[in-house]
Design goal:
This protein is mostly helical and 403 residues long. Helices cover 83% and strands 0% of the residues. It has a single domain, classed as MFS general substrate transporter like domains (Growth Hormone, Chain: A), CATH 1.20.1250.
Length: 403
């Protein structure tokens, strides 16, 4: 760990600014994305909608952002990262800010699902991961975990602030301030994010590595698709429904909102550990640890839905929320090389988010049909067990040198 800390202590100013840019983008973006979980119940009550209407908007958001993450990955391999990130932030500001005026379900789908989804896909972990990996080829896992910790800190700080705003000013004001936050960070990203690498520079694009078509002919590609599909299925079900689930179980509204924020705090610890562990042991073990914790968390809440158990569930799941993110670039690098890092991480994350949309939507449909989330939690537990099996298969094949 001392060597890892010293490796980041001796970085250049350009690399430090790259890291800061990535942190800021993810800080604002994840806080905004998590806001829908905070507003779910008050929106349903105020607009007289079912949870399925909000779940549909979240599902469309996940699919739109997933497709745009893949596109952003391809752009990150070829274009200015500064341009990609700033365009994404501006689109996000328009989509999420205009949510304050919605009155019909189609408007939530159009603004949150499509417009915000497009912007969120562009200003996402994919271009951030590409630029940080180029800037830190030696400590890729740790550097990515520092940038990705912006998601955790954003969730902690922004959701805590928004929970207070919700209590005082209502759900519409939340979307206004989240839109403003995206605009406020734009000048900082313009000043700190790198443009397109110059040929021959230390961060220029490498010449070796499989294309998507070549990678798709290998077994590791499809195993990673399955692993990250299940991960997303878990993640966005919990993000969209944990506050509503807590309130349904008798937890105070403000405390339930703060639980979502505190998940960011435990996530901060989890993502930093995952980055360091991935550098030292490879990407498999932090991924397995994340899934084992989730199995225990889902099992707990299925057995007992008391306030204490819900708090333990939220904080333990929060610990794993971003643990699989730093290993993504390492999985791709060790299996497919660096040449098409953006496109390959983009397509894996696209699957992650597409299944995330399915998880968020499924949770809403299950609740509307049954009046509880019990069946949804059982489905999450079963899916996580499948993910553990897929991860062990990947590790076994890597040990045997299977392509």
């Amino acid at each position: 760990m001392t060597q890892q800390k010293s490796a980041l202590a001796n970085i250049s100013l350009a690399a430090a600014l790259t890291l800061a840019a990535g942190f800021l983008v993810l800080f604002v973006g994840n806080g905004a994305r998590m806001a829908i979980g905070l507003t779910l119940r008050p929106m349903v009550a105020d607009l007289n909608w079912g949870r399925g209407e909000i779940g549909a908007a979240v599902g469309v958001f996940q699919f739109a952002s997933a497709l745009c993450m893949f596109a952003a990955g391809r752009m990150a391999d070829r274009m200015s990262l500064r341009l990609v990130l700033c365009a994404g932030l501006a689109i996000c500001a328009v989509g999420i800010g205009a949510m304050m005026w919605i009155t019909e379900p189609w408007q939530a789908i159009a603004l949150y699902g499509i417009v915000f989804g497009i912007g969120s896909g562009m200003a996402s972990t994919i271009p951030v991961g590409v630029m940080v990996t180029r800037a830190f080829p030696g400590r890729t896992g740790l550097a990515n975990s520092v940038a990705l910790s912006g998601m955790c800190v954003g969730q902690l700080i922004i959701i805590a602030i928004l929970a207070a705003i919700l209590a005082q000013a209502g759900w519409r004001s939340i979307f206004f301030w989240v839109g403003v936050a995206h605009l406020a960070v734009l000048p900082l990203i313009l000043a700190t994010a790198p443009g397109r690498p110059v040929s021959g520079s230390s961060v220029s694009q490498p010449a070796d590595g499989k294309t998507i078509r070549q990678a798709a002919r290998t077994k590791p590609f499809w195993l990673l698709m399955g692993i990250y599909g299940v991960c997303g299925f878990n993640d966005f079900f919990v993000a969209a429904h944990v506050v509503a689930f807590a309130q349904d179980s008798g937890v105070d509204a403000l405390f339930a909102g703060n639980l979502l924020a505190l998940m960011g705090l435990t996530g901060f610890a989890g993502v930093l550990w995952a980055g360091m562990a991935a550098d030292r042991f490879g990407p498999v073990w932090p991924t397995l640890v994340a899934f084992f914790i989730r199995i225990a968390a889902f099992g707990l809440v299925l057995i007992d839905a008391s306030t204490v158990s819900i708090a333990v569930f939220a904080l333990s799941f929060g610990l794993t929320f971003f643990m699989t993110a730093p290993p993504t670039v390492l999985f791709v690098r060790e299996s497919f090389g660096m040449r098409h890092l953006g496109a390959l991480t983009g397509i894996i994350t696209m699957v992650h988010h597409a299944f995330g949309g399915l998880g968020a939507w499924m949770g809403a449909l299950v609740f509307d049909a049954a009046g509880s989330y019990t069946s949804a939690f059982a489905a999450m537990l079963a899916a996580t067990l499948v993910a553990v099996g897929l991860t062990f298969m990947y590790a076994r094949d890597r040990a045997k040198g299977v392509a």
